[in-house]
Amino acid sequence: MTERKAPVTTAWLRKQKQEKQPIAMITAYDYPTAKLVEEAGADMILVGDSLGMVVLGYDSTIPVTMADMIHHTKAVTRAVKRTFVVADMPFMSYHGTVEEGVKNAGRLMQEGLAKAVKIEGGSELAPLVTRCVQAGIPVMGHIGLTPQSVHQLGGYKVQGKNIAAATKLLEDAKALEAAGAFAIVLECVPEEVAAKISESIGIPTIGIGAGAGCDGQVLVFHDVVSYASEIQPKFVKKYVDIGRLIKDGVERYVSEVKSREFPTADHVFTASEETVAKLYGEGAKE
Ligand code: KIV
């Protein structure tokens, strides 16, 4: 296994693939989570536009803006030293001209301090990927189920199930690699298709619902720790029920406030006797 003491780079990620060492990526959207995720040893953090759903309460990623992404990316990058932070380009931030896309990608790096950006789409995005890479912006592709196209796809469904769709995914992956992408997320793709793509390209594939044949895995933090995450798709593994722990803690706090068990002498500050005497007047202590 390649020891990682220095910050993760795109070259290190590629080496992980060559040495068949799995890459662990997880989302984070704020300072404390990013700090914990780095301490837990994640290689990469994705500031995903999934924040629209799990943090901001929208029912899709579509309402997420550049301002949202920059705000959350800044919080995450302030927290980490070694973890490679990728920020999602939100809906419509890269669907106009290539120049607009490059400008928005640059903002996520210059203002958010992300190390790279992620874009959803296939070969049609090759010109944008090439221009970003020429400008020094590492780009991660994202194919398969692309949540920003949920209304076009007709729902959150597994993609690439027939030979035509699987072949198109393979071609998209190759086009993204040729354009200069440093890695590709494969979301909700049959494991056989994901494995074929992974062995056909030289850059790492990071799977979510795409099986063990990918070079790495990514999951949404709130799903992994069960933090008020209402949906638990088949591909998610829940490692801890932090939502239950938070609820238990807050329930006990509310109950102790109402029963006056909290605060106790352990949790208060006291004024000097002189101050109390002046404040309450003579006989205050009797
Ligand atoms: O926004 C996100 O969290 C993502 C992952 C699901 C890959 O794009």
Question: What does this protein look like?
Answer:
By secondary structure, the chain is α/β, with parallel strands linked by helices. About 40% of the residues lie in helices and about 15% in strands. It has an eight-stranded parallel barrel with strand order 1-2-3-4-5-6-7-8, surrounded by seven helices. Helix 9 links the parallel strand 6 (about 185) and strand 7. The N and C termini lie far apart (about 70 Å). The chain binds 3-methyl-2-oxobutanoic acid. 3-methyl-2-oxobutanoic acid (KIV) binds near residues 48, 88 and 208.
List the helices and strands and how they pair.
Layout: H1 10-18, E1 23-27, H2 31-39, E2 44-47, H3 51-54, H4 66-79, E3 84-88, H5 98-110, E4 116-120, H6 126-134, E5 139-144, H7 150-153, H8 163-179, E6 183-187, H9 191-200, E7 205-208, E8 216-219, H10 221-224, H11 242-258, H12 273-280
Parallel strand pairs: 1-2, 1-8, 2-3, 3-4, 4-5, 5-6, 6-7, 7-8
The site of 3-methyl-2-oxobutanoic acid has 12 residues, from strand 6.
